[in-house]
Write a structure and sequence with these properties.
alpha/beta, 39% helix, globular, binds NADP nicotinamide-adenine-dinucleotide phosphate
């Protein structure tokens, strides 16, 4: 799998996937790691996903880059989330402020944790274009190392300001919802139309969508979520070149409707 600024370019999301089901977490996370994924994204917002993830990483912690989040209005609540995360994961490779919630309040203590070496990078996330102005403002402080945002053929708003800004500032880009939260993934155009993309190592529609976003070199890692080990393997396989050119990207966008 190709590696960029945040490591291997296909990771794994954990929203509405295994929640508290540790057995399923071991299967899905294990399949993703075996297939070369490293970044696993979670959040205190995702039910019991973080604790299930920690169980899934038993004996494999070194293979993963844990990207989780602080989702808290107050610093006290955020610190409590972080305390549990350190118990689960030992250290955090990427700590993100979820949906910009109280981001200015959290920055100072998070920077202290990064300086102390318990966190490698700090990031900030949001899913909605109405918050992209605020996301840009947060990035312009120069205090975040990464941004997480949606990017797929039906959600391209980040191309206007955030992707150019991230490139200009040297901020890493994590793509949430690369499959349109499953909506785009379910619009499989069928084998005949996909056959035109075979030269790009694309065998499935989900792989076409993943390659669509990863073919933008400003994107560092895409984190598709899945409940199925075989799909984790399928998605990971989209992380290798060749990448799509402008024409093929337009073709995939047209197929996505
Ligand atoms: N504000 C934020 O910070 C924020 C917001 C949203 C998401 N995120 C993060 O981004 C991650 C990804 O976003 P997402 O999970 O919402 O959406 P997504 O990755 O675009 O899509 C996930 C959906 O696609 C399906 N899927 C996965 N692989 C597939 C394949 N190979 N073929 C067909 N269908 C496939 C999954 O169903 P199956 O389970 O049946 O495979 C699931 O329903 C999340 O898990 C989360 O970690 C962060």
């Amino acid at each position: 799998m190709e590696q960029r600024g945040l490591g291997h370019v296909v990771g794994l999301g954990t929203w509405r996937t295994f929640d508290g089901d540790e057995r399923l977490a071991r299967e899905v996370v294990g399949a993703a790691l075996d297939a070369g994924c490293r970044v696993v994204d979670s959040s205190p917002m995702y039910g019991a996903a973080e604790s299930s993830l920690s169980a899934a990483l038993e004996g494999r912690r070194e293979e993963a880059a844990v990207a989780t989040k602080i989702w808290a209005r107050s610093v006290a609540e955020g610190r409590e989330q972080y305390r549990r995360q350190l118990e689960w994961f030992g250290r955090i490779e990427l700590e993100q402020v979820h949906n910009l919630l109280s981001w200015e309040e959290h920055l100072e203590w998070l920077e202290e944790e990064r300086d102390a070496g318990r966190v490698d990078r700090l990031g900030v996330t949001h899913y909605g274009p109405s918050a992209f102005g605020e996301l840009a403002r947060a990035l312009r402080t120069g205090r975040f190392d990464t941004v997480q945002l949606p990017h797929n053929p039906a959600e391209r708003e980040c191309e206007r300001e955030l992707l150019p800004l991230a490139a200009e500032l040297g901020v890493g880009v994590v793509v949430m919802r690369p499959l349109g939260a499953g909506r785009l993934a379910s619009r499989d155009p069928g084998p005949d139309r996909l056959a035109l993309l075979a030269d790009f190592g694309i065998e499935t529609w989900a792989q076409a969508l993943l390659k669509w976003t990863l073919s933008d070199e400003r994107v560092d890692v895409a984190i598709p979520g899945t409940t199925r080990p075989e799909r984790a393997r399928e998605n990971a396989a989209a992380g290798a070149p060749p990448w799509l050119g402008p024409e093929e990207r337009e073709y995939v966008a047209a197929l996505a409707g």
